[in-house]
Amino acid sequence: MKCYICAQEGNDSDAVGVCIVCGMGVCRKHMMREETPVWDGTYPVRLKPDTEHIKRIICPPCHRALKENI
């Protein structure tokens, strides 16, 4: 699998992870690994802090979206 963001930029990099939110393949340069808020699966979406403090892989677009909605 290749990094989706690198492919859009015209580069060819192997993905080392998959975004937990959208499933995008990301390389080491584009992946973020940190604690993310938890969604309980109901609507409207309400994000709660991660009480287990698990670091998850997330892509930059999803990271921005999550940070905007905390």
Characterization of the model:
20% of the residues lie in helices and 23% in strands. The protein is α+β, with helices and mostly antiparallel strands and 70 residues long. The chain has one domain (4-68). It has a two-stranded antiparallel ribbon with strand order 1-2. A two-stranded antiparallel sheet has the order 3-6. Strand 4 (38-39) and strand 5 (47-48) form a beta hairpin. The protein is elongated and about 35 Å long. The termini are far apart.
Summary keywords:
single chain, 70 residues, alpha+beta, two-stranded antiparallel sheet, two-stranded antiparallel ribbon, 6 strands
User: Count the strands?
Assistant: 6
Question: What is the CA-CA span between the terminal residues?
Answer: 31 Å
Mean pLDDT: 90
Neighbour order of strands in the largest sheet: 1-2
Largest sheet: 2 strands, antiparallel
What is the share of helical residues? Answer: 10-25%
Count of structural domains: 1
Overall geometry: elongated
List the helices and strands and how they pair.
Elements: H1 4-8, E1 17-18, E2 25-26, E3 32-35, E4 38-39, E5 47-48, E6 55-58, H2 60-68
Antiparallel strand pairs: 1-2, 3-6, 4-5
